[in-house]
Design goal:
single chain, alpha+beta, 5-stranded antiparallel beta sheet, 24% strand, elongated
């Protein structure tokens, strides 16, 4: 809100009224008294009011212009945020591409190791095989698409079939085209079977066997003879020698077994000639189609029969010319082997590609990519761009309707499903690319490239949530500026009638949608609070501001009335008129933070134009807007002795001045007296009791502890005994309680002058906490929090620093770090903090060390780790939780090594005190230990993250005991889901920050389930909710502080409901 313009507005109108009131008043009075012509009075009144209207219009237009500038700025800010989201979307796609490349590289390296022993096979093999071999052993993924490989293999199949096998079979078909020997079938059958084997899995087309006929009649003949030459003659039914078909055959090993394809029905006889001189008689073809045995001399035996086998033949015989180079059986067999090797390689690649697609990591990244795509498509920069000034209510409401609503933003901000998928990813063993061998399983082993791609993608979730939170805040501000602009535009377009119902409906819609956006903007309550104040101002403008145009119209209507202007009717007319303007004052703190100021500095309560003896007293409103965080005691006094404020008359034209005085209300309790006077006491040991009354002035219960702060003012100790009978006071709201003090004087005469102080506390005798938290600090994705005995809050911040928040502070101070690096005065991704004896112990995770910063120091010293990342006793690997005992022994959760280490002061290496037996669920194992805590007996309590349990390890124990969870991940009372922090009270109750369930669970000793004490209303940003909290601590009074990570805040949950 521009206080200067508001001040100018009211001062201008007051000045116009002060200058013109007497003129207007006298003209109206003259008109009423004379009841004569109205021209002069009408003209003067009209001109005066018109000048006021013009002044108002100019000021209101300036205010609307200022509101438009705020809209433009908010729109640009929102567009920039959406631009960052688009960059994030590009990053996610790039990381997903990196993941696929890394996975393919994994497969290629494993494939190369698998087939390296077969390299010798490449030497005698032809071109096709070499291409398949290169494809099989390449270190890069195939450049061709899957469809290209299908086309290549389809062509190869058909080339071998039609160009090689067909002509090979034609070459071995001896005889006549209608009757010839059946060629070798092996190569064709091998090719058909090979195609059948890979057709479905690789998606190949059916083989084109149109040139191969399996349906002809087959004649089988077997001849035993010592002769080397046989001639078989087939004769037609006309016994015409010119139509005989003669087929010469060679005989080897004294035996001939031959099959003939018969593609004609005109055969009548068959005759067989052995050598030059032996002939069989004419055998009927009909007999030969049955089992027939012919004995021709002792050295010749012929067996003939019809064969029922199915064979493939082609058109043409060996004595016909064809256009193919002769191909041998060995060459043909080699081609088929080459083809089979290529198919095998392609099949293996497809299987490996499917293995990559089926990886859980691939599916998780695909889900993230889909979520980010949905996000950027739903947020269109063009819809948010405000291209011109919005000068009327229609323009404003049309622009507002283009903005994303709260439901869409809330849906886009919900990354729960994606986060859950990431959280369910089991930790993988990471190896170098060079260490991949033939037994490496991508299901359980990742390369560093795969891990980097996955981690980078996961970080995009946090960045997306952060940008969407900023988007929500920017959208909240844009909405409130639209409301302000709508209010000013409405005022500029008001006429004598009330605003239309459609305007009111639109204004209500703007406010409703703003409220919905505010509900999901809990990450920035300061902004919401400021916007709410601005919205309230806009409401006041919309509903309370009366244009002088209305007043002008009212007066003109009254002057034109054709009735007798008696006092009663005039009184009724003014009572129900639109005349009048409420006064508004805004309170704010001055720059020096010590005084309270108001704006405008001068304002007025406008009682309208009041006529003599008519409507002397009019009720108006003085509206005071308190922008401060504190309650204010307001006192309003008048400069006049009379407390009644009368409207001006002909004898009183000056408005009554009011003085508004405000002060911050700091009173909690009221004491009946500041001094308890025992008077002169006899030195005989008699106990004297006194009491005073303490009244709680607050509307809520108050618990207080009384302490004797000063025993005496002299150097000699006081001999008498002053005691408080009950140091704890429970003060109910607005009630009075006795506070009793007793004194037992000593026999020595002395002056007793101690002081008794009262400290407000909240005790927890019932073990209950307020389930609605209070934000006590802002932080950038805080992962831990610590509260010292003075109530100071320490938070590791993403700015590579430790931020300290003093009690009730609105800003933090840097007490360690502040720049990214590995020097002693730098930090790299600090994620844990512990304070002991005013020293800060910082988990400097990026440097794999723990740094100790003395109070006020500008640099730290390494007290654990600092020897690079590793698993040796002098090393740490992604350390997390920290606890420092009274002897300044540092206990650190060495997360990636699945152990808890103890580093004594001055030690050069640590001692394993829990875990250290590899990752697992056994009682002597841990899996990603995070938060740790030591009770008074030095038992170590560990948030065993991926085992969804809390383990208690006694000092010196080799096994842990489950004290919370351990029943699998889930949200049931007996379950935990990814716990990150743990604490224990003196009664051995275990408090667990159940991160993925967004709650704090209390587990009593030996309990089989826990109870929810904080966070039972789901995940969100309201004060009674949490969103993926990472850190938790108790203060000295039992209050719980939670690092509410994805709400960017530290929440305090007070002990005692």
């Amino acid at each position: 809100m521009n206080f200067i313009l508001i001040s100018k507005l009211y001062q201008t109108i007051v000045a116009v009224y002060e200058k013109g009131e007497k003129v207007l008043f006298e003209e109206l009075k003259s008109y009423i008294n004379s009841n004569s012509t109205v021209n002069t009075a009408t003209t003067v009144a009209y001109d005066l009011l018109d000048r006021i209207r013009q002044s108002e219009h100019s000021i209101y237009s300036n205010l609307l212009t200022a509101a438009n500038q705020d809209i433009q700025n908010s729109s640009i800010k929102l567009q920039n945020i959406i631009g960052q989201l688009h960059l994030l979307s590009d990053n996610v796609k790039r990381f997903q591409s990196d993941w696929h490349y890394a996975c393919n590289l994994f497969i290629q390296n494993r494939r190369a190791k698998t087939v390296s022993s077969l390299a010798v096979l490449a030497k005698p093999i032809g071109t096709f095989f070499k291409s398949a071999w290169n494809f099989l052993t390449s270190n890069e993924p195939p450049q061709l698409q899957s469809s290209d490989h299908i086309k290549i293999f389809n062509m190869t199949f058909n080339d071998i079939l039609n160009e090689n096998i067909r002509f090979y079979m034609q070459k071995h078909q001896q005889g006549h085209p209608l009757i010839h020997t059946i060629p070798p079938q092996k190569h064709l059958v091998d090719l058909i079977n090979l195609h059948k084997k890979y057709k479905d899995s690789l998606g190949y087309e059916p083989l084109d066997l149109n040139k191969f006929s399996p349906s002809c009649e087959c004649f089988e003949i077997e001849i035993e003879t010592y002769r080397s030459r046989v001639m078989i003659s087939f004769m037609d039914k006309y016994e015409n020698p010119s139509n005989y078909i003669h087929i010469p055959l060679d005989v080897s090993s004294d035996r001939l077994h031959q099959l003939f394809a018969v593609k004609t029905t005109s055969i009548r006889y068959v005759q067989i000639q052995i050598g030059e001189d032996i002939y069989t008689g004419l055998m009927k073809w009909s007999d030969c189609t049955r089992k027939t045995i012919v004995q021709a001399k002792s050295h010749l035996k012929i067996s003939c029969q019809h064969s029922h086998q199915h064979f493939y033949t082609v058109d043409g015989t060996s004595d016909q010319s064809f256009t193919s180079d002769a191909i041998t059986s060995i060459q043909l067999e080699q081609k088929i082997k080459e083809l089979e090797l290529g198919l095998s390689a392609q099949s293996k690649y497809n299987m490996e590609e499917k293995q990559i697609v089926d990886l859980r990591g691939t599916k998780v990244l695909a889900s993230l990519n889909k979520k980010i795509d949905e996000m950027v498509k739903s947020l269109n920069s063009n819809d948010i761009a405000c291209v011109s000034n919005l000068i009327n209510v229609e323009d404003i409401i049309n622009f507002h309707n283009r903005l994303p609503d709260a439901d869409k933003i809330k849906r886009l901000r919900n990354f729960d499903d994606v986060k859950q998928e990431f959280s369910r990813m089991n930790p993988m063993r990471v190896i170098l690319d060079d260490l991949i061998d033939s037994h490496s399983d991508i299901q359980f082993v990742w390369t560093e490239k795969m891990q980097n791609a996955f981690i980078n993608s996961r970080q995009c979730i946090e960045q997306s949530v952060k940008q969407l939170l900023l988007c929500t805040s920017a959208l909240c501000s844009l909405n409130v500026h639209l409301i302000v602009a709508y209010a000013w535009a409405h005022v500029l377009t008001m006429n004598s009638n009330n605003s239309s119902s459609s305007n009111d409906q639109n204004f209500n819609t703007l406010n409703q949608r703003y409220d919905q956006i505010c509900k999901i903007s809990g990450d920035n309550p300061e902004l919401v609070k400021a916007n709410n104040l601005l919205r309230n101002d806009a409401k006041a403008i919309y509903y309370n501001t009366r244009r002088i145009n209305n007043s002008r119209t009212e007066i003109l209507n009254m002057l034109k009335m054709k009735i007798s202007l008696d006092p009663v009717k005039l009184n009724d007319t003014f009572q129900y008129s639109q005349l009048g303007r409420d006064a508004h004052i805004w309170l704010f703190r001055s720059k020096d933070e010590t005084t309270i100021q108001c704006a405008p500095l001068k304002t007025s309560i406008d009682f309208g134009i009041v006529l003599v003896d008519i409507h002397r007293r009019m009720i108006q409103k003085l509206i005071i807007h308190n922008r401060l965080e504190n309650d204010i005691d307001i006192e309003i006094t008048s400069t006049e002795s009379n407390t009644q404020f009368y409207a001006p008359t002909e004898n009183q034209t000056k408005l009554t001045e009011l003085h508004v005085y405000g002060k911050v209300a700091l009173v909690d309790v009221q004491l009946s007296t500041d001094i308890i006077d025992f008077g002169y006491c006899p030195c005989n040991g008699t106990i004297i009791e006194k009491y005073i009354d303490i009244k709680n002035l607050l509307p809520c219960p108050l618990n207080a502890i009384a302490q004797i702060q000063q025993q005496e003012t002299q150097a000699i100790p006081m001999k008498s005994i002053l005691s408080i009978q009950s140091d704890r006071l429970n003060l109910n709201p607005s009630t009075t309680t006795h506070f009793h003090v007793s004194l037992k004087p000593n026999t020595v005469e002395e002056i007793i002058d101690p002081q008794i102080g009262f400290r407000n506390v909240i005790a927890c005798p019932s073990g209950s906490w307020n389930t609605t938290g209070t934000r006590v600090a802002r932080a950038n994705l805080p992962e831990d929090v610590f509260v010292d005995n003075d109530g100071n809050i320490y938070v590791p911040d993403n700015s590579n620093s430790i931020q300290k928040w003093l009690p009730n502070a609105t800003n933090s101070i840097t007490v360690a770090g502040g720049s990214f690096g590995s020097d002693m005065n730098q930090l790299k991704n600090p994620i844990g903090i512990f304070v002991r004896n005013n020293n800060l112990y910082i988990v400097d995770n990026g440097n794999f060390r723990v740094q100790k910063w003395a109070y006020g120091a500008t640099s730290g010293v390494t007290v654990a780790g600092g020897n690079s990342k590793g698993s040796a006793l002098n090393q740490l690997s992604n350390c997390y939780g920290i606890y420092v005992d009274e002897n300044e022994n540092v206990y650190i959760a060495d997360r990636d090594n699945n152990r808890v280490m103890k580093w004594m002061p001055g030690a050069t290496e640590g001692i394993v005190v829990a875990g250290g037996n590899g990752e697992g669920r056994n009682s002597n194992q841990l899996t990603f230990p995070l938060g740790i805590y030591l009770d008074n007996d030095a038992n170590i309590y560990i948030a065993d993250y991926y085992n969804n349990r809390v383990q208690m390890w006694a000092q010196g124990a080799t096994n842990g005991i489950t004290v919370a969870g351990g029943n699998g991940g889930g949200s049931a009372p007996n379950q935990l889901s990814l716990p990150r922090a743990v604490s224990v009270d003196t009664q051995k109750n275990v408090y667990v920050l159940d991160t993925f369930n967004d709650r704090v669970q209390k587990w009593a000793p030996h309990a089989s389930s826990g109870i929810t004490i904080i966070g039972s209303d789901g995940r969100d940003s309201r004060p009674n909710q949490l969103q993926s909290p990472f850190g938790m601590r108790f203060d000295a009074n039992g209050n719980i502080y939670v690092a509410d990570t994805y709400n960017w805040r530290i929440q305090k949950f007070s002990c005692g409901k």
